[in-house]
């Protein structure tokens, strides 16, 4: 039997959501001068989200709308009304004022504590463009930014804004460009993207989700604010004018050392296919939340103190009762729902051994499928398309049904206790 590891290790595909086309210019994130200059560039484009839902655009004509729906990229002049007053980075205590030199510390680098968090995604350079080192941005930043060749990209989630503010932006775009705008279902939006858009979208959605959710300091519970163009968060108690007056209050622990909760989080997940000894069968499972005929590769989060290979073996056993060996890396894929890294593996298993899904009860079913069965699905005219909008609606309907059932059960218990009060003692 040929080992999976004999597979050409030099072959590594660029998976959907990976292969980012952007130069992220990470060394320039602490520079409020750079960020304030690049955000107002006429070439800058924005991806907007609303509680994780991407903004989509399509022609006003209903006949064309569905087939030509795509991600909306907005210029800065359209987005300015929702950003608040400038400066947008390096903000002082008062709106409209830049930090004084004496207030610039590690806790205020490119600080944005006024207004919703904004994420600088990077620069899509032209073939002749080249990123400049940090030293080039010490003086005359605006003229240097104007010489940058390419398109800077930003992202923002407007979920915390008033509807009137959001509607004002959308109506302006619809009127100027004669398009229809709508907030799309995040997973369904995948089908509208090419490789370039998918990679930009993956970075954007993961980053705005982290900023949107992480509103309070994990060290002390105080509100947080954005730094480094959305790539770092800091506790408001660390601001030069922060409130630390409470008697007996300890300093926020985030002010010292390197803390993982102040930087973006990526959660590693193993996703794996077990192959039988013939190389003609693979094991797939159906999660309890999936539609009736939807089977997929098994997957699970890495646990502390585990190598990727350990997690593959553990998850295969816990979910399907299958022992695997010869665990071999295939490739990885960012997964922006909300911010995972799917690390793909192959493994060998014995297809003659029984399958059991009663260990952790995560799967409704698991089966071995032949190569021919898999190819017949992939070759089908509808492929493996899944309507995530309908899937989400069904999920919500199931949740409502479960909630109603629980309420009825609780009501029955209350009635029984009223009729027989001694039983509750």
Automatic annotation (TrEMBL):
Residues 264-393 form the Nudix hydrolase domain. Residues 393-402 have a biased composition (Basic and acidic residues). Its cofactor is Zn(2+); Mg(2+). Pfam families: NUDIX (PF00293), NUDIX-like (PF09296). The keyword Cell cycle does not apply. Its EC number is 3.6.1.22. GO terms for molecular function: metal ion binding; NADH pyrophosphatase activity. GO terms for cellular component: cytosol; peroxisome. Keywords: Hydrolase, Magnesium, Metal-binding, NAD. PROSITE patterns: NUDIX, NUDIX_BOX. One of its GO terms (biological process) is NADP+ catabolic process. Residues 393-425 are annotated as: Disordered. PANTHER family: NAD-CAPPED RNA HYDROLASE NUDT12, NUDIX HYDROLASE, NUDC SUBFAMILY. Belongs to the Nudix hydrolase family. NudC subfamily. This is NAD(+) diphosphatase. It comes from Moniliophthora roreri (strain MCA 2997) (Cocoa frosty pod rot fungus). The lineage of its organism: Eukaryota, Fungi, Dikarya, Basidiomycota, Agaricomycotina.
């Amino acid at each position: 039997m040929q080992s999976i590891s004999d597979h050409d290790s030099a072959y590594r595909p660029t998976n959907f959501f990976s292969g980012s086309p952007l130069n992220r210019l990470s060394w320039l994130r602490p520079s409020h001068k750079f960020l304030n200059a690049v955000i107002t560039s006429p070439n800058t484009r924005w991806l907007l989200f609303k509680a994780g839902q991407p903004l989509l655009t399509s022609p006003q004509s209903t006949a064309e709308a569905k087939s030509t729906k795509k991600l909306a990229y907005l210029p800065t002049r359209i987005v300015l009304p929702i950003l608040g007053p400038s400066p947008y980075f390096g903000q002082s205590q008062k709106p409209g004022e830049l930090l004084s030199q004496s207030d610039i510390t590690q806790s205020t680098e490119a600080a944005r504590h006024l207004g919703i968090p904004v994420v600088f995604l990077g620069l899509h350079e032209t073939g002749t463009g080249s990123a400049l080192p940090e030293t080039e941005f010490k003086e005359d930043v605006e003229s240097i930014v104007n010489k940058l060749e390419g398109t800077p990209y930003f992202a923002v989630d407007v979920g915390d804004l008033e509807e009137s503010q959001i509607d004002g932006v959308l109506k302006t775009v619809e009127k100027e460009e004669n398009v229809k705008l709508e907030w799309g279902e995040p997973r369904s939006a995948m089908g509208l993207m090419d490789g370039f858009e998918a990679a930009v979208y993956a970075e954007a959605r993961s980053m705005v989700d982290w900023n949107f959710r992480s509103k309070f300091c994990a060290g002390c519970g105080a509100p947080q604010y954005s730094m480094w163009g959305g790539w770092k968060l800091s506790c408001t108690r660390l601001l030069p004018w922060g409130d630390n007056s409470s008697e007996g209050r300890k300093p926020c622990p985030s002010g010292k050392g390197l803390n993982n909760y102040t930087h973006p989080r990526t959660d590693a997940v193993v996703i794996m296919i077990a192959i039988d000894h013939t190389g003609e069968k693979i094991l797939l499972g159906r999660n309890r939340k999936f539609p009736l005929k939807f089977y997929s590769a098994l997957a699970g989060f890495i646990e502390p103190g585990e190598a990727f290979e350990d997690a593959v073996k553990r998850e295969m056993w816990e979910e399907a009762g299958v022992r695997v060996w010869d665990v071999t890396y295939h490739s990885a894929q960012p997964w922006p729902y909300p911010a995972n890294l799917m690390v793909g593996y192959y493994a060998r298993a014995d297809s003659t051994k029984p399958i059991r899904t009663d260990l952790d009860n995560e799967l409704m079913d698991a089966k071995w499928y032949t190569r021919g069965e898999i190819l017949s699905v992939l070759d089908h005219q509808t492929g493996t398309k899944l309507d995530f909008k309908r899937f989400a609606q069904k999920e919500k309907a199931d949740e409502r049904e479960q909630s109603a059932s629980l309420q009825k059960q609780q009501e029955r218990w209350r009635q029984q206790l009223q009729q027989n009060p001694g039983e509750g003692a």
